[in-house]
Amino acid sequence: MKTTDRVSFSPDEFAALFGKQQTWGYRQIYAGKVKAITEYGRIQIPAAEVERILASAGRYEGMPKKPAKTKAELQAMKPALQSAWQTFLQRKREGSATGKPTAGAPSLPRSDTKRPDARKAALGRLTGGKSKPRPPSA
Q1: Residue 14 and residue 3: Cα distance in Å, rounded?
Q2: What is the pLDDT of residues 53-71, one digit of tens each?
Q3: Torsion region of 99: left, alpha or beta (phi above 0 gives left; psi -120 to 50 gives alpha)
Q4: How far is it, in rounded angstroms, from Cα 53 to Cα 67?
Q5: Which residue of 36, 50, 93, 129 is 20 to 30 Å from 77, comparing CA positions?
Q6: How far is CA 50 from CA 6, 14, 28, 59, 98, in A?
Q7: Is the pLDDT of residue 89 over 80?
């Protein structure tokens, strides 16, 4: 269907021209991207607006490709990557890469093991005292 056959389009018809849903047409109007005629109780989009949008459309070229790194750039990165890999392996051998805290790293707070009811008290603080005590397990 040629757009010159019609004088104006409803938002639904306008969206259908572009292969979109009706909501898309209204969003274009409310965002101010399309001028609409709102007189006489209906929203209408002039055919000139459709022509303007189609005339301003450009060709999609996709994302620009990143230029490949040159050999010199890769050689310059090599010492840093090599030392990072060696550091990782050393930490893995020591056990710190497996999730164990390293020396000097702050540890998570532990519950008070000196008080037998400390766990119950912590649970009460977390739940606001609304939890029922669980029966002792066998």
Answers
A1: 10
A2: 889 888 888 888 888 888 8
A3: left
A4: 33
A5: 93
A6: 11, 8, 12, 17, 60
A7: yes
